[in-house]
Amino acid sequence: MKKIFSTIAIVCVMTCNAQDFKVTKTIPIPGNDGWDYLSVNEQAQQLFVSHATVVNVIDLKSGKTIATIPDTEGVHGIAVANDINKAFITDGRANAVTIVDLTTFKLIEKVKIEGVKPDAVLYDKFSHRVFVYNAKSHDATVLDANSNKVIATVPLEGKPEFSVTNGKGLIYVNIEDKNQIKVIDASTLKVLHTWSIAPGDEPSGLAIDNSTKRLFSVCGNKLMIVTDAETGKIIKTLPIG
Description:
By secondary structure, the chain is an all-beta fold. Helix content is 0%, strand content 56%. It is built from no helices and 22 strands. The protein is globular, with a radius of gyration of 17 Å.
């Protein structure tokens, strides 16, 4: 993921027209080092911000930093698992996953992995597994979320980026350097499908609407590709900034 700004802007959607979006609040974060993923704990109304070697935790009601999680070298992604009261954080330069308590923000365990440069991370409540996507080794390290143990490595044959789950046993991940989405069975840990999303190039961000079974991949060439999550068929290609 590319670096983001040293402040966080909260955008209010007034109508569906892009020109009606407006910034309603800006939250300053101390420090000037690199940034990457944001993750929201909706249950606690907290925002986790990856920030070089720490994770800043912000109370969304007050806009104040309430905790700083240290020793996350080259931090990228944060996966919140409310049902087991844990957060899983990728340490990109340490090839490790930092696991913290969601109540105290204290370290539970730091798990070293064989994957190189862990980046995005996803917690799948359906399988109680954590999928850690490794940018340089082109694979996914899978952890048991309860025991924190590594249980498998899934080869992906390309650079993985953001990932989502349908909550029913399927995991979707963008493959940035191949312009693809791969579909992983959360139980067997096998790659079921590989879908091209050309003309989208360098897909990074990914979202899913489970009600309509649609995937939304945002790409480096200023396109968003909307894909059918069941068939892999491209439904729409939209220009974005």
